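Morning, I've got a small favour to ask if you have a moment. You're getting the sequence in one-letter code plus the fold written as tokens. Thanks so much in advance, here it is:

===
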Amino acid sequence: MNGMPRISVVIPLYNKSQTIERAIRSVITQRITDIEIIVVDDGSTDNSAAVVQAMADDRIKLVRQPNAGPGRARNVGASHARAPLFSFLDGDDEWKPDFLAAGLTALENHPQAVAYACGFDTGVYADQVTDKVSLLTPTPALLPPPKVAAGHQWMKYALDGLHSSSTIVRREAFLAAGGYFDRDRCLWGEDSYLWGQILFMGPVFWDPARHIFYHIEDSDLGFAIKKRDRERPLAKWGYQLMKKMAPEHRKAFFVLAQRTASDDADTLADSGHIIKCFALRCKYRLLRPWRLKADIRRYLKHLQSRGLQKS
């Protein structure tokens, strides 16, 4: 492709030989055709890269890097991108044919929107992972950044609704946020670090139509992992990120960071890291007695399960 594409699609790739062709074909069969596809092989040890190379389409560009995690892979892909709009499709997810058309139309009709996010279809796993965009609005809507009054649950839905595979973001907003968290080969929350900032940069166009298939059954990260040994970057760096926010959004952003920290503290207790759990609760002023009692119960349950496994 010689001209400027309307959108750059970045696909991080690590050992997805069974699903990467499905993901790419869902892009090249979109109704929107003036696109570029940048696949970043993050040091795969299977034949994933060979599958990509075998696909005959001059819109596909394969970039290789030593394994550094999905955040770095997406950021490297973005550094090669030429279009004014970015979308990041995971190598195990799949777009329906009208995803890009719906997103580009929404962003063209609403130039003030910093991003577009649609609903996702999890198939038989819908009872385990609920589409969050439909919980935010029953019809397509351009919504401003949330206020404190929206509450932490609404903000969590919005953060989860900004799923990388179902979101289109403007280049300038992506760059202003600094992209995905890409230090320390981060494998959890590298995306919420970005989308938590985007949520407060300007209006987001929310589309509850389910234009993508979210294949959680093929995921090796996120949904597939229940135990963690650290908090997500949004919780770790929440206070620093809050200072980057416009003054009118700082209190609301803190509510989101605090909710993220609370959820992560729960996970740390479930995983046996009770000291890290307490430290995180202290950092975000979440030291109510009922919370601490619940953490102790979670930790004891973890110890009990370990004892049963050993016996």
Notes: The mean pLDDT is 94. Strands lie at 7-13, 35-42, 60-65, 85-88, 94-95, 115-121, 141-143, 167-170, 204-213.
